[in-house]
Amino acid sequence: MDGPTTGGPTVPRATVVLRTPLPFDAVTLDPGSFLGRWQSLNRDATLPHVLRQLEDAGTIENFRRLVVPSEAPHRGFNFVDSDVYKTLEALAWEAGRLPADQPWEGVTRELVDLLTAAQRDDGYLHTLYSGDEVFADLRWGHELYVLGHLVQAAVARTRTTGRTDLLDVARRFADLAVARFGEGGQDGYCGHPEVETALVELYRLTGERSYLDLARRQVDLRGSGVLGSGPFPPAYHQDHLPVREVTEVAGHAVRQAYLAAGVADVVAETGDPDLLAYLLRLWDSAQGTSTYVTGGTGSRHKDEAFGDPYELPPDRAYAETCAAIATFQWAWRMLLLTGEGRFADEMERTLYNAIPGSTSVDGTGFLYANPLQVRTGHDGSSEFAPAERLPWFACACCPPNLARLVASLQGYVATRDENGVQLHLYADADVAVGSGVLRVRTEYPWDGRVVVDAGPDGLTEDLALRIPAWADAAAVRLVVDGTVTDVVVERGYARVAGPVRRVELELPMPVVAVAAHPRVDAVRGCVALRRGPVVYCVEQAGLPSGVVLEDLALVPGSPLTAAPPVAGVDALVTVEAVAVHRPATGGPLYRAASAGVVGTASPAPATGRVTLRAVPYHRWGSRGPGAMRVWLPVAEHP
Amino acid sequence: MDGPTTGGPTVPRATVVLRTPLPFDAVTLDPGSFLGRWQSLNRDATLPHVLRQLEDAGTIENFRRLVVPSEAPHRGFNFVDSDVYKTLEALAWEAGRLPADQPWEGVTRELVDLLTAAQRDDGYLHTLYSGDEVFADLRWGHELYVLGHLVQAAVARTRTTGRTDLLDVARRFADLAVARFGEGGQDGYCGHPEVETALVELYRLTGERSYLDLARRQVDLRGSGVLGSGPFPPAYHQDHLPVREVTEVAGHAVRQAYLAAGVADVVAETGDPDLLAYLLRLWDSAQGTSTYVTGGTGSRHKDEAFGDPYELPPDRAYAETCAAIATFQWAWRMLLLTGEGRFADEMERTLYNAIPGSTSVDGTGFLYANPLQVRTGHDGSSEFAPAERLPWFACACCPPNLARLVASLQGYVATRDENGVQLHLYADADVAVGSGVLRVRTEYPWDGRVVVDAGPDGLTEDLALRIPAWADAAAVRLVVDGTVTDVVVERGYARVAGPVRRVELELPMPVVAVAAHPRVDAVRGCVALRRGPVVYCVEQAGLPSGVVLEDLALVPGSPLTAAPPVAGVDALVTVEAVAVHRPATGGPLYRAASAGVVGTASPAPATGRVTLRAVPYHRWGSRGPGAMRVWLPVAEHP
């Protein structure tokens, strides 16, 4: 092992990247900040809950069966081992986040001992497959996928605790994969990308080049069709085209984004220009045609797929939690590669909308799919479109994925380059930058004022502050050491030359009506309300009695204002808007609006106006199940 | 056997129904009429194609395996036997339609001999299951489902040819089902309804009451949960609630409509008022919240389900062909029960839109799902959302279902009651009504003029003519024996008292802009174009070069006119409309339309106007794959 052991999830070795992550312990989020509170909830509620569920669902027991002969059947999908690994990764980041307070070390060691005992002599470790089944079904077997998550857990544990017990397990399995699928071995790759990014990180930690080589080989081979055909189309497995020929996001959204993250890691270590071009094309495709205003991706329930360009229905939005997490991870790697603020913008969008919306206020209820609309009369019996957040899922990939991301959030706040430090995510935090500590003070995302105090000695280097694309650059205010300074935004950042002691940034946060591209048919005539990075929604809960959510339309020209908190909804700022109420329960589904000429139906008569209180999308459903919508119709003839 | 042997698909015995079908040979469709041409295409192209595909897919071979020991595996789903049965039913209706010309009798006999040889001594007949597997999985086994289709084929063959060879096979299997699941037997029903309607028809043909009793018993038991839980939710199998407690359509659309058709048959023979109330509630639910403007139902790809009320996305419309056929069959039974024109209206809507759209102009390409929009850039690789019609499917339920419906279409044209004759579907046809022949002359659906000539002796009974709900009743013109007559519409019909010699009906057919209920979010701001019963669509094919379909919006107030045929599209009448062209390729997916106030984004600049030629929806794709849409945006600021 010759790599750094103090890093977070991503520690590039090569000099390809334009930005370098800070050490994992460099940033401390204030426990009262949005992100800090989320981390506390994750530690105090989500992680204990996840560990309990892993026992109850038999996911940990699956490993015990390998150690102590048992008649009990394997439980869960063939990728269920990864739920344990993602949880171990979360526990490891927790250990690094609060190194003085390690309540999970005992649990972790027990699990590591169990994995060590369960592992075969040749390094193979999977709770379902044995004998001829091993690596027999690359398309659906998920064996390299679970290896990837095992590696990520092991890397995290080593980096935050220095312990190599789990790393030994992971390397034995990874070495087996190298022997089997490495150069000169079988031409194979996994039906579910994920091992690519993990192998690169294992290389970064250990310096063992064969891991990077295997990752690159898997990327190069992908799309050659070796997975064969099955119940899902080739794009589902990211096997429809060689990576270098792909021009659009396609197929299963999580697989697509995990693959892209892995490719970005390969680029970060190899500088491959063709692969970088692929990533940029793919990013533009995702952002330009296939991402919800919340940052969610993968609109289709069927095959958990992206769907066609501009196919973004709010009601049937699948927008799997894991897809948003995968987008975050991909965006982070693009940020490191390019230093461009648009990638941090997307991290922020997912972080305040698509991702937190998947977790209940108490941290123990989860959404797998994250719709942008729930209809009155919604049949919430499906696990994939439930009426409320659920404690667990038959396919429980999302909760432990959330846990590992949230436990490592501080790792994504800032980076550095040869000129200085870049702040990407604004949060109340202390950021150690070598020479000293930057005290970042803000009520973000509820308030756009950010004060960075570098202390009396100041920061000798440059400080780059992200100016989000959602902010009106002309209205941004920047005060450097007491002097109002012109804001020059370059690739998404305002750069303050050091030395500097105190920077005040004001990002104005008016409530904005957001319109979608005209090809997004599903939200024609609607706007979404956004304030700063936070997207809002209106719910049936809170409406006057007798008013059905679907009967409301915003009044054009009426004010959109920030408003105080709402009982039962954990958010500092809500939004007020005025809507006209046009009751339309029942009546014919279709009617002739005009004959012989293009006309439109007159709207139902208005019975009055209603002041709506919109709440952050990420807190929808906090007041119980019921109708919800992000996209609000704008009345045509109010 | 004591039932009539000259009937069509539905021959009620009891006097519950208010309308009685005519004998199957009473109506002869003119070969040049829309429906007559469809029947010819079905006979000349679709049926030979289907027979070939059943061989190529191994569906017929599955039966041979039961007779001659073979190592060849069973091929296809566990309900694939029904494809053979539906084809046999189609062949039987053909035999009754053109009794002097029976090219299929040899093929039919071969198949019947094969089934006879394949049937077990106890009557069981299924190509996949044997031993302990028999009736072991009611939820997914489809055994009673395939029995239902076998019975329907046998009833058709007996009614049109008098032959009982297939009926013997069907009764042996049905008797086994009665013994096993009848009164005092196992409480069981099939996960896919269909046997209910078949058993009632078998009772009607044979007079054997136990078949009706089993059908009623299955309806009564349904929803008691005996199917248990599986990968699909209970509503998928119509097992979520006892039938009498159901208030809304739910679950798998085909199963829902087949069940309703079966319940309607039970009501027709028992008069059960609670079940009739269920049917009327269900109908209102389907028609009021969950049916496409084409008559398609089942909007979700996931679970082929209805989805929530008003969830009717045009692009992801699943709208399975079989669901439209099932709606047609359900509507027909409701028409017989109630005599209300709204049910015939729905038969007509499916017959000119959802159903024919599923078949290519040459009769050998099919759609399983029937979207109302295909996007530019559509990934057409899915069998369930292909870029063009396909020759066959892994789940090939639709093509033979189409074949049996089309071969029996003349059976749905007219009925009688004690007062006289009712005309439901307008088509150029001769209708034998006992005393004589009604010569119906019309260019329907392209022209709304219908002339009924009862000959010099005239019709002594009353003649009821359906006045479709799409027609402006005030503008309908009725001339009875040369005298212009007031049109009084009662329950959907204008009744002309006999005796009468000649009736001229004029249903004006302006091009109408149809608007959807405001809760159908997916088509907000759009209209669909309809002329008479025919819904139109606009396709990329035929647009000027450089104009992308998605960049067009109709100009409010501009004329909608009927227009002549379009090359490559088999339709007598097309529709012209004027659209504004606003190119919007690329650009951001979301943008702030306004800050602090409700505003909407300005549309992209217009580059000019385009005259669109809309073609009947049912002929979309005739000019090759490409973008298509039924719902057209209306420009806001043209």
Structure overview:
Chains A, B: Pfam families: Beta-AFase-like_GH127_cat, Glyco_hydro127C, Glyco_hydro127M. Chains A, B: GO terms for molecular function: hydrolase activity. The structure is a homodimer of 638-residue chains. By secondary structure, chain A is of the alpha+beta class. Chain A folds into three domains: 385 residues, Glycosyltransferase (Alpha/alpha barrel); 93 residues, Sandwich (Maltose phosphorylase, domain 3); 123 residues, no CATH class. Helix content of chain A is 31%, strand content 16%. Chain A has 13 helices and 24 strands. In chain A, the strands form three sheets. In chain A, strands 3, 15, 16, 17, 18, 19, 20, 22, 23 and 24 form a ten-stranded antiparallel β-sheet that branches. In chain A, strands 2-6-7-8-14-10-11 form a seven-stranded antiparallel β-sheet, with no helix packed on it. In chain A, strand 10 and strand 11 form a beta hairpin. The longest helix of chain A has 23 residues. Chain A starts with 19 loop residues before the first strand and ends in a 5-residue tail after the last strand. In chain A, 58% of the residues are buried. The model of chain A has no long low-confidence stretch (mean pLDDT 96). At the A-B interface, helix 10, strand 15, strand 16 and strand 21 of A face helix 10, strand 15, strand 16 and strand 21 of B.
